[in-house]
Write a structure and sequence with these properties.
- By secondary structure, the chain is mainly β.
- It folds into two domains: 47 residues, no CATH class; 139 residues, Galactose-binding domain-like (Jelly Rolls), CATH 2.60.120.
- It has one helix and 17 strands.
- The chain is elongated.
Length: 200
């Protein structure tokens, strides 16, 4: 039992070590002028056709209070009027967002190396959390398909459980979800080599 909790703690450390977060509440209120890209902590602001603005705005999502937002100022694409960063590998992108309209829902596009991966719902008048899977390494662009405001962007890479020295921990021991060690004959959901799988 102690071993499974150690593995879980190591997994949490590995996940938190592989996360990038851009919370706009921590940014200075400012205007990024049209045509002048700027990179802050690995996130590039690309105001190619209009100014992009960080200003004061209070929203609470999942008990977290946000005090500033990023306003795209209109429609963008994978190459224009967006923000982007380089993903080191596959992972999960979580965005706190809302429509710039108080009543009209809008969409937020996410692209990897110029190819749209999908669109997230930006709800009118309500800030929500939305997630999308990033399928590999490359340039991840985020853009409004209409007026959309962002409060926070978080990207966590998909990595296995890592040992403290950074190497993947290979362990043939199998555990059930209760943390008890089981053998190959056990049927059901198990944890093996740091990954959940179904044994039949």
């Amino acid at each position: 039992m102690k071993k499974i909790f150690t593995l879980i703690a190591m997994a949490i450390m590995a996940i938190s070590a592989n996360a990038q977060t851009w919370n706009f509440s921590d940014w200075e209120a400012q205007t990024f002028s049209k045509g002048e890209e700027k990179t802050i902590n690995g996130l590039t602001i690309n105001p190619s056709s209009k100014d992009i603005v960080i200003d004061a705005n209070n929203k609470t999502v999942d008990d977290v209070k946000y005090t500033k937002r990023l306003k795209f100022g209109g429609k963008g694409s994978a190459t224009d009027q967006n923000v982007y960063f380089t993903a080191s590998g596959a992972g999960t992108l979580k965005i706190i967002l809302t429509s710039a309209s108080g009543s009209e829902d809008r969409k937020l596009g996410v692209a990897l190396d110029g190819t749209e991966l999908g669109q997230l719902d930006a709800i009118g008048g309500t800030a929500t959390a939305a997630t999308i899977n990033i399928t590999g390494a490359g340039k991840v662009a985020i853009y409004g398909l209409g007026g959309v405001n962002l409060y926070c962007i978080e990207f966590s890479t998909s990595s296995g459980i890592k040992s403290p020295n950074g190497e993947t921990k290979e362990d043939s021991t199998i555990y059930n979800l209760g943390g008890q060690q089981v053998n190959e004959a056990y049927k059901g959901v198990v944890v093996k080599n740091g990954k959940k799988m179904i044994q039949k």
